[in-house]
Amino acid sequence: MGQDIDDLPKHAANFTALTPLWFLDRAALAHPDKTSLLHGSLRYTWRDTYNRCRRLASSLSKHSIGLGSTVAVIAPNVPALYEAHFGIPIAGAVLNAVNIRLNASTIGFLLGHSLAAVVMVDQEYFGLAEEALKIWAEKSRSFKPPLLIVIGDKNCDPNGLKYALGRGAIEYEKFLEAGDPEFAWKPPEDEWQSISLGYTSGTTASPKGVVLHHRGAYIMAMSNPIIWGMNDRPVYLWTLPMFHCNGWCFPWTLAAICATSICLRQVKAKEIYSAIAKHGVTHFCAAPVVLNSIVNAPPEETILPLPHTVHVMTAGAAPPPSVLLSMAEKGFRVTHTYGLSETYGPSTVCVWKPEWDSLPPVTQARLNARQGVRYVGLECVDVVNPKTMQPVPADGTTVGEIVFRGNVVMKGYLKNPKANEEAFANGWYHSGDLAVKHQDGYIEIKDRAKDIIISGGENISSVEVENALYLHPAIFEVSVVARPDERWGESPCAFVTLKPNVDKSDEQRLAEDIITFCKSKLPAYWIPKSVIVGPLPKTATGKIQKHLLRAKAKEMGPVRNSKL
């Protein structure tokens, strides 16, 4: 008798765990001599990158770093951070790419929460890492010093590297030399195995650790070039931090399509235009704040008209239609996406419709400012009534919560069962973002639940900023909301009332003092750019009415010349 059609079993010959690590192996085979990475005078081929990643994995393995281990990397967009996206999981360990804009206290918490076995740190940020490790050690009775590796960079002051080596750190290149470039690695036995850990603040007192798996990373990495129409010849500029949602999974995508990466330590409009002219950059990702800097760059820093069409993917905060219009006028083709750390980065896209081509540019920009429809690798996204979980009507006016379901939703938050229960209630991942659904099925965000402030594409918790402000001796009550910011899209605006015994004769000086006070308590981009002294509007039960404060902050107009 023959077998039923569904009784055929899985074999090693026809089933293996999905992982993006195979993309690197294939890139080295298909295009061994093609440039994989450029960074200043450094140039690596795909053969070089594969060998370097295997060396990294081999050296980690020699130090007993593997399954169950977490490796933290504190670095800007340099080749070592790209290599970490492959070398660390090839060793079986989990990558935690740390936001370099965080302060030492927060990084110390992250390292302790994840029990980082290794800390790789760029020489420019070694002092920050040292302070973070000190804080971790002081707060943990079971602190075990992690292996400390410093990443040198010829583009930086050499004294930074010398200092780190003098403090007992191992130099990254020396660490690689101890590894085997022919390291015989194996893919994960289970595609549910964790590949990365990233932290998002939300509105809770402590950051939440977002755990992602190999399967989701594979699917998202394959979805990116389909969504963007990328072939095997793109030149990709790293304007998006690789520490932000694993660079939206593009480290793995670029290996899949054998593209070339241009690393960029500091993101400035002049450097972006220069890379387009010098290296033929065809694609880059960026938060709207970067787009704003591009369209407002002085003429002497631009190269216009562009020598070719440059494709830009934007997400993080809804880009203003005016910015999208200006980008289009300068020759950039912007693809607008939306997502979260919990969904591997962008997971919806405002798919451009051919019929939009004949519309006025202003109308095109308005339509492109919507968050769109689900990614090709995401099974379900909807806007629902959070109480009934029923989809809202596609009328463009009924507000509901954006929810996700599919293979590119995180495994969960590390060591946080309560947050997981809330996030996955009713069989959906709850984004906390409020939106409407239009007749064509495209979603559009209208508000952000839980008062998240998005500055430069990074989330800021208003509650945590308020907690820091409450430590100021003059402050009696405080409420923090988002205020428009010309450079960053949004920045924190603090409304405060003062204690009765405080001298209120010079409110401007006091506001400046509060901002200075915050510099020792918060990451630079979390510091309020404006402080308003006065009574806070409240309900009859004493609750501060944040919606009124948000309206007031908007009426004040955007913060100008904001450097932080």
UniProtKB/TrEMBL annotation:
Location, primary (coarse class): cytoplasm
Domain AMP-dependent synthetase/ligase: 25-414
Residue ranges occupied by any AMP-binding enzyme C-terminal domain in the UniProt entry: 464-543
InterPro entries (UniProt xref): AMP-bd_C, AMP-bd_C_sf, AMP-dep_synth/lig_dom, ANL_N_sf
One GO location term (cellular component): cytosol
Keywords noted in UniProt: ATP-binding, Ligase, Nucleotide-binding
Localization annotation: Cytoplasm, Cytosol
SUPFAM superfamilies linked: Acetyl-CoA synthetase-like (SSF56801)
ATP-binding as UniProt keyword: yes
Pfam families for the chain: AMP-binding (PF00501), AMP-binding_C (PF13193)
GO molecular function: 2-methylbutanoate-CoA ligase activity; ATP binding; medium-chain fatty acid-CoA ligase activity; propionate-CoA ligase activity
Tree of life domain: Eukaryota
Family in the record: Belongs to the ATP-dependent AMP-binding enzyme family.
Name of the protein this chain belongs to: Acetate/butyrate--CoA ligase AAE7, peroxisomal
